[in-house]
Amino acid sequence: MKKPKIFLDTTIISYLFKPDKPEKETESNLLWEHIIAGEYEVVLSNEVLREINNCEEPKRQKMNDMLKKIEYVEIKLNSEIVELANEIIRLGILKEKNRSDSLHIACAIYSNCDQLISWNFSDLVNPKTVMGIWKMSLLYEWSALEIISPFSLRLREEK
Question: S-S: 51 plus which of 10, 19, 105, 159, CB 3.0-4.6 Å?
Fold first, then answer.
């Protein structure tokens, strides 16, 4: 069986160290364990890496240390990705102020990811964005991109 190809936005890596949100921190670390175990093909963009490098220390170093523990493919922004992001904004799926989020989605589409995983419920993991990207996928005949939180992966073992 083919490994799911996932795009991680910055929130997933950030929430590996989020003691004020223990449930999300736990779920992020559980996902990380599954990634380390090789269950997913991971894609990050240079936009995600830029966002990480804009974090303050010591969080930036902790996040970069966690990235060293996994294998991932880095997608560099290019004109096709920027055009996809522009179309997401033009169609009103996201606003210009959410350009970074539109770039995350565009990178995930461009790299044929199965899922974009995020804790950003206000802009990414919400019905408006999810439905907008689904409709856009149909319109442009792209493979469907599922935008979900780690909770949707159901990583916890059944007891």
Answer: 10
- Going edge to edge, which strands form the sheet with 115-117? 73-75, 41-45, 5-8, 115-117, 146-148
3-state secondary structure of 75: strand
Q: Is the pLDDT of residue 158 over 80?
A: no
Helix (H, G, I), strand (E, B) or coil at 137: helix
Does 159 reside within a domain?
no
Instruction: Output the pLDDT for position 157.
Output: 58
- Residue 125: phi and psi, rounded to 5, are -90, 70
Could you give the CA distance from residue 102 to residue 107 in angstroms, rounded to a whole number?
A: 9
CATH number, position 130: 3.40.50.1010
Name the token pair of 14: 């950030």
pLDDT tens-digit readout, 63-111: 999 999 999 999 999 999 999 999 999 999 999 999 999 999 999 999 9
- What is the count of structural domains for the chain? 1
Residues spanned by the domain of 43: 5-153
**Count of C-beta atoms within a 10 Å radius of residue 101:** 25
Question: Max Cα separation, the chain?
Answer: 48
Whether 68 is covered by a domain: the verdict is: yes
> In residues, how long is the chain?
159
